[in-house]
Design goal:
Blueprint: E1 13-14, H1 15-22, H2 26-34, E2 41-43, E3 46-49, H3 51-65, H4 70-93
Antiparallel strand pairs: 1-3, 2-3
């Protein structure tokens, strides 16, 4: 049986639970959303997060403790996304199958 981690990406966790899991305040979590570092789903005005979002928030919090600015974190995230997109385009062009 293959391991399926799709549950990690389902947006089902409320901001209160995320706050408890991460140790971040709800205000900090909303701030990271405002800074475009995290992208929760919204249903009837209620934010919903995934386990992957919780991991991302922990990574952000650790970087902030090290003195990294939110702008630097966002720039790093953008760079990683671009690299993944480029790799995907190259794989598609050369018909590479992982």
């Amino acid at each position: 049986m293959a391991y399926d981690d799709s549950y990690k990406f389902k947006k089902v966790i409320s901001i209160g639970i995320v706050s408890e899991l991460t140790g971040l305040s709800q205000r900090q979590i909303r701030y990271y959303e405002e800074r475009k570092l995290i992208f929760p789903d919204r249903s009837k005005g209620i934010r919903k997060y995934s386990f992957a979002d919780v991991e991302q928030l922990m990574d952000i919090a650790n970087k902030r403790e090290e003195g990294v600015t939110t702008r630097e974190i966002r720039n790093e995230m953008t760079k990683e996304i671009r690299q993944k997109m480029l790799q995907g385009q190259m794989n598609a062009h050369f018909r590479f199958r992982a």
